[in-house]
């Protein structure tokens, strides 16, 4: 099972170079498993025992299974994750001509580690909006081939490089995509129109706009002398999206189960499709239009917010609290912060720890050093929006927010096992 899950994650990462593609990949898997798509613009007819999903902005998705018992009596078992990862996004007017090269201006999305982006074989993917025969349409594209790179400056010209130097995102990050030949200037929108034709057989009248991200073309892989690790891009947080999906597909219990994977977590989640927006609440209220039933259901529910955790790095062990250094391949990590950067309480942590023990899944804890700041997740945001009890957990990871991250090859199976048990558990606290 472990090898099958790891290979499935590798394939999912390859198919998901952008939040749009990650959401489309989840939707395809859900539909293949019998989940019915719902349209927010239409009336919904749902029934007990039904399985459904809905997307918003093409980059966020909520899937749910309805049990036979009323939501107000049984509550909901929710697993939350996010579809976005730090990256380089193409600017609206990106064309640059410098020293005979065609480059694209980029904006840093989220808290990216910038140095690893240099000297990589990069491609481009995302959503393009265009007009065709008088109609405005959108389509996902993925160049797939390595079309760009950001070369480092040679050590001979930057003798202080190994002592560390600040990277200027405006001047030093524009990827090179071609040499300019002839008199014609670069035209990125024309390039996108050509890609729409090559990839989808579409003839666009005008490319109106786009949301495109560069990504590393090197596939994820199981590595290590004994295959102990998974290395790949976007493990934060597509590993959790994939784990939640596999758990939802594996459950055959008569429970009310929800998987919510939202965009824009890396930039604060405040958007129409982010965790700090109305998406989840609006979906749940359509299922429970009566206010009292909605409030009763929320107070019988529990959310597991799954987002990767910082494993203790052997070269930087002093960056962790001495009693809270999660290890790779040692199970999911309960994340705690007294200042509510994580939403974990003793009640929700106790429930999750008991669930792990009952299902023979190892479990760990993380608290940041008292003299360091702490990141956050969708957990506190969703708890604050809905008033739902929440625990923040995640798979231990190295190099979070790098272009290539590292996780343990056993931890995906651990996470899927406990999330499957959660979806099937008979009692919530």
How is this structure best described in words?
With 429 residues, the chain is an alpha/beta fold. It has two domains: 2-85 and 233-424, Aminopeptidase; 87-216, Aminopeptidase i, Domain 2, CATH 2.30.250.10. It is built from eleven helices and 20 strands. The longest helix is centred in the middle third of the chain and has 16 residues, at 235-250. The protein has helices at 2-14, 19-32, 71-74, 169-172, 188-200, 235-250, 279-287, 291-299, 346-358, 378-386, 411-424; strands at residues 36-37, 51-56, 60-65, 77-82, 87-98, 101-109, 122-132, 135-142, 176-179, 206-216, 221-223, 229-232, 257-262, 302-306, 309-310, 333-335, 364-366, 389-394, 396-398, 405-408. The model has no long low-confidence stretch (mean pLDDT 96). A nine-stranded mixed sheet has the order 1-2-3-13-4-14-18-16-17, sandwiched between helices. It has a six-stranded antiparallel sheet with strand order 8-7-10-5-6-9. Its EC number is 3.4.11.-.
